[in-house]
Amino acid sequence: MAKDSRANGTTGCSESSNGAVRIVKRVLGFCIDNWLVFGFGIATLLAYFFPNVAARGGVIRSEYSILYGAIALIFFINGMQLSPQKLKQHVTNWRLHIIVQGIGFVVIPVLILILIRIVIAAGGLRGGIDVTVLVGMVVVSAIPTTIASNVVMTRNSGGDEAAAIIEVVIGNVLGPFIAPGLIYGFIPTDTEFDSVRPASPATLGPMYASVMKQLGLSVLIPLAVGQGLRWSWSTRVEWMLRTFRLAKVCSLCMVLLVWATFSGAFKTGAIYDLPKSSVVFNILMNLALYMVFTVVCYYSAYPPEFLSRPVNAIVADSKLGRHLPAVIRRALTMKKMPKDQVVAVCLCGAAKTQALGIPLADAMWGQHDNVMKSLIQIPVLLYTMEQVFTAQFLTILFRWWIQRDKRTDCDDDSEHAEQRQVVGNSSETSDGQGSKENEREVVNSLNAQRVHEKVAS
């Protein structure tokens, strides 16, 4: 009896220690898989304690080394990774363009304008919310999708990065022309906003030149060079990608972008000049709005049947819709997109870029002092920073969502293979009509066993 009790005690201790080891391994595995979150945290701490290193004009001259160099490296590597055929395919994916650009330039500005009108009607301006925060939110609503982070996170999620790149290029080409008009039209006409109205549109010339230069040097040229290498030396390029793990380099560049963004925010000190109530309001609204925008993107790209059926009856399948050209009708038809494209839509449609937002605010409010411009730029900085952190956690969810279907498909394939093997073995021992009946009996029996196992589990 004593031996048995000692044996049981030893077994219990070993089982508990094995369980603890398994838990530690899972935690470590999760941390390693999502190291980018910890990288963002370290970058934020470095920016807080040493803001002069990675801010504009700082030690490493981040306005060139990171905002040009790191982003160019991301798109150069993506150019080498992407299949040219896939890029060509998405150029004419009109439904993808309509959803992403429509949400970015139409739906989001309208939703933020509604929110601003609610804040004004509720007396928010008298309750401690600074008017510059609301103006900054208008700027956020009008600017296009971010340049680099959504591409990297789409790939990390298992999504369609070619779709993300196409939308980045389209959005940032259209953005400088659309965003100023949206800002001029969406800033409320209330007297409280008279002191923060932008300058004449004639002052926007330098902004156009700056944005187009960055788009060309950091996105279009590196992407074209990477695609050229992929076309010319496909085998060698694939070897380089595998050997040097260049995909990880893109994620590291993302950490550098976060470092530069937070450094700029902490260096200006403008965030400390705003009332705490305005800062808290803006931070919480950014998180809530980003999640709302993501949900809108998801259901636009992956609508349930109860939503798509009545919409199609009114639009694509209406009398007018039936007479539209086939390309336009397909683009307007509401249906579920492939899951990898859904991920690209969610990460691109809800995102905004400070690469246009900062120079745009600087140009449109050029007649004001630097403090006023910094106050208007703070909502842009806060939104772009918060979206990076939030999107990184969404990549975990999206990756699980895509891999779940892959596991299901693998289980179905193995089940069908088992059925074929059993049927094949049974057919070898039978002939004629009896073999067919035997096959049906075996398949029915196997299916019944599967159902019983699933119910039991």
TrEMBL record:
Instruction: Name the segments for region: Disordered.
Output: 409-457
Pfam families in UniProt:
SBF_like
> Does the record bear Membrane in its keywords?
yes
Question: What keywords appear on the UniProt entry?
Answer: Membrane, Transmembrane, Transmembrane helix
This protein's GO cellular component annotations are:
plasma membrane
The residues that cross the membrane are: 27-50, 65-82, 103-125, 131-152, 164-187, 207-225, 246-266, 278-299, 342-361, 381-402
Asked if the Swiss-Prot or TrEMBL record annotates the protein with the keyword Membrane, the reply is yes
Biased composition of type Polar residues is found at: 422-433
**The name this protein goes by in its record:** Sodium/bile acid cotransporter
Recorded source organism is Neoarthrinium moseri
